[in-house]
Amino acid sequence: xxxxxxxxxxxxxxxxxxxxxxxxxxxxxxxxxxxxxxxxxxxxxxxxxxxxxxxxxxxxxxxxxxxxxxxxxxxxxxxxxxxxxxxxxxxxxxxxxxxxxxxxxxxxxxxxxxxxxxxxxxxxxxxxxxxxxxxxxxxxxxxxxxxxxxxxxxxxxxxxxxxxxxxxxxxxxxxxxxxxxxxxxxxxxxxxxxxxxxxxxxxxxxxxxxxxxxxxxxxxxxxxxxxxxxxxxxxxxxxxxxxxxxxxxxxxxxxxxxxxxxxxxxxxxxxxxxxxxxxxxxxxxxxxxxxxxxxxxxxxxxxxxxxxxxxxxxxxxxxxxxxxxxxxxxxxxxxxxxxxxx
Length: 342
Prior knowledge:
Number of strands: 6
Strand order of the largest sheet: 1-2
Largest sheet: 2 strands, antiparallel
Shape: elongated
Strand content: 5-15%
């Protein structure tokens, strides 16, 4: 009987000591996890696509951000976050504890990068900007997206975002915009479908860089289409000649259109064809698309550049001819002024 009592007492003592040891171990682990880290400055740390916890923890230790890679692995196993690390670029503060570092990498509070893709650029021009971005990863798509299918905007993304994924995001953004705006369009528009709206918006976008003029230009083109008049837009000629790339003379300087180019019939030259161009001539922005789907009323059917970044609008050909004469006079005066300054 005494033997049994002694054995029970021993077992109780072992259990108590084991519990105490476990408690001490747990307390030690919590203290180590919460302990200030060794780094003395803010650090940018990148988790590469497909990188596992063991590799990440080893690099963190090597870079002096945490003290013990194995401890981080243990902490992640206990928390069930071994496979929960996010890909991206993270900001780790000075003396960030092991627990804080792990939380940041798991919660995915990655540094955001941005790429501004301007309105009025052709698809080829936007793709060049995307390809040149140093933070985006991966190759360009094997098949380029169609002209006019991307929505220009400023896009935010994490490091690790692929070029293909960003392009798909731009396409979806335009699809979503059209799904929202097309059902709300003004009645009686000379547009058969959302694609034609994008085509007309692309012409509006190229015709004016002045945001305040977009609705008026959209209204003018809408009126011309309703009356069966040709759009007669210079950018449509350029697209038929160079697919929207700038035109240069033999000396390498930008030039204006040649008479032979104006007279050349292409699928885009709206001086030579009725209705809309065959495809968009650029990627229009939100405002241009919204303008062609809800243009204001106007009696203007002609317009010409005023030489100051805007346009002169006219209701009649006679008024338009006076505006053209005024613009040409302005051009002559500017040329004379430039020569005098030299």
